[in-house]
TrEMBL record:
Keywords annotated in UniProt: Toxin-antitoxin system
Recorded superkingdom: Bacteria
Family indicated by similarity: Belongs to the RelE toxin family.
Pfam families: ParE_toxin
Official protein name in the record: Plasmid stabilization system protein
Amino acid sequence: MNQYIISTEAIRDMEQILDYLANTNINAGEKFLEEFSKKCRYLSQFPLMGRSYREIRPYLRGLPMKNYIIFYRLTEQGLEIMPFIKGERDLEAFFFENP
């Protein structure tokens, strides 16, 4: 599996994070984007390397990145990067509100 798709929700999340970092530390924003891209490439090569979150959603997997968790799922087309959120949030509540 070498292909991954970034959902519109994940793009929105990335834009918000990068907007914030652009106002505080442009280098941190660049590093964040580089690390995100690197994690996505790793996941496309090793899709089971992330933790299962089946207690929240049966298909849900996640991989930590700094203070965030990159959520994803495996599909017939490849890997779909889903919204990623801060790890300290109530994950069950987030996915209940955002099915």
